[in-house]
Amino acid sequence: MDVTVAIDCMGGDHGPVVTVPAALAFLRKHAGSKVILVGRPEALEAAIAETGGALAGRCEIQPASEVVGMDEAPANAMRNKKDSSMRVAIDLVKSGRAQAAVSAGNTGALMAISRFVLKTLPGIDRPAIATALPNRKGHSYVLDLGANVDCTAEHLLQFAVMGSMLMTAIDHKSRPTVGLLNIGEEAIKGNDIVKQAGELLRNSGLNFHGNVEGDDIYKGTTDVVVCDGFVGNVLLKTSEGLAQMLATMLREEFTRNIFTRAMALAAMPALKRFKNRVDHRRYNGAALVGLRGVVIKSHGSADEFAFEQAIYRAAEAGANRLVERIAERMAAMEGAST
Amino acid sequence: MDVTVAIDCMGGDHGPVVTVPAALAFLRKHAGSKVILVGRPEALEAAIAETGGALAGRCEIQPASEVVGMDEAPANAMRNKKDSSMRVAIDLVKSGRAQAAVSAGNTGALMAISRFVLKTLPGIDRPAIATALPNRKGHSYVLDLGANVDCTAEHLLQFAVMGSMLMTAIDHKSRPTVGLLNIGEEAIKGNDIVKQAGELLRNSGLNFHGNVEGDDIYKGTTDVVVCDGFVGNVLLKTSEGLAQMLATMLREEFTRNIFTRAMALAAMPALKRFKNRVDHRRYNGAALVGLRGVVIKSHGSADEFAFEQAIYRAAEAGANRLVERIAERMAAMEGAST
Predict the structure, then answer these.
(1) Nearest chain B CA: its distance from A268 CA (Å)
(2) Among A69, A142, B124, B282, which one has the highest count of C-beta atoms within 10 angstroms of its own C-beta?
(3) pLDDT digits over B261-286, tens only?
(4) What value of ipTM does the predicted structure carry?
(5) What's the gap in Å between the CA of B154 and the closest CA on chain A?
């Protein structure tokens, strides 16, 4: 695909040791794509040398002297680190040299800088964070995941537009279904904001399925699930906690003694296939949507495989006009309502 | 234990075929306890005869001619079915003949009838629904799970009292820790209601741990986790959906072909131990707390084992003065604040 991705190579728990090999692995798989590696040149060059070559012509280094700390206050990162790898990567999107940026750094700082540099799209009050979660049929996008704690019905409608266009741009699905997260399927249930959002969604022209409940996320009832950032953050972290607990318990039962270890060995191919299917690394790369540019947030602890997935999502979204699709859809809705 | 539990034997998806054998199994394990089976006498007698005896003197039948439908409107059940098995079971708690009631019927109707018949405790604005969720160390109680969609900070404080007393009454833990569900551990995060609730909890005299996040539930960071009913319902159903998806995928990998079936056979003891550990039936029995009486809600689809757990929880809560403990704690807090 014909796209250039700017990569904040210094962010995340591991920095260039992970981000640079992931970028080069991505380039090898996707002919025509380019990356701009952003960070301290000496660190990047060392990592490139170790990986064995820079894929000449498709991989460029953009120097940035500073790094945003993982626990740094977003306001501080924004005001005082104008030459951070995160900021420079986003500036590359702003200037049009790249069609998307990826960072594994501090979420708060990434959101603050992205919002400040890129600005939100017309009609969008606040950007949101969306991620893909696996289900029995494939995956769906859930948003918002924590950028917006208190949301109005209009915000939820905007999230639905952004989630739908994300599914269209990255997964090439033309009329994604949208579910409104609620605590009952009947339209009368839920709080006032959710009820109002239901009304707006029914008249939006989106492919609105209706209310969905928590279990519908993993059943794959709809392609997109919208909720406020408090609920979305709780459901995401609860899911992570439950999955980790179950994985730990399964491991404990198979490593209890020499007999159970032998069982694990015997069952390895099936256990391994299961592990691959539910591997959360495949879903790495949350989208900051609603901005005038594509920004993808990788998990801070992402390994090379996981970070490569985040780059891939950034490239797909950039190549398939995510931002323009959201803008067009918002404009069409504005037009219809006036 | 010295306690009498009133059982709505007609409620739930299966009725007396499940509820009666579960009640008799409970009696056999707990000397000194009694049950009052509520429902249509002919249906109950038939179920008792099949189980092989009524444990004379410890099992009584209380006739009730009506049944609340699983999809019946709560208002209708409350107004027009005064001789329903659900209503009669709760009446037995009200009159003092039973110390607790259990039903697998319609949650909305159970809450409406319980509230109408038993009333809320002094200082409690609204009853809540609490359930035990498993974690790496044992289990914790989470509330509210859907009875209260919009909550004030005071409601969250009341939930914390109710959850703490539940842990004390059922699990005999004297100073349970309380976590306030939020989207960040820092006190500055979250919405205004959660921030205010944090202030109230810090001054409550409860064993307040501070903010917790979704993954802390399954880590077992605190004994009690409080949140509003919208968030609680979403997190519970999301957990159910994820657990079901993972179980389905694990089963699929082991039943893919004759080789994987052989692997499953070889790994059976470890897989079975894992299944037992995460068996949601062990956690059946949500408590309707904040009322002047103990009411436990079983899952509608509960089998005999699961329904027996719900009866056990009702008996423990009734025998260990759950209601009085909540009332005393609320009175102490009132006294301290005036």
Answers:
(1) 8
(2) A142
(3) 888 888 888 888 888 887 888 889 99
(4) 0.89
(5) 18
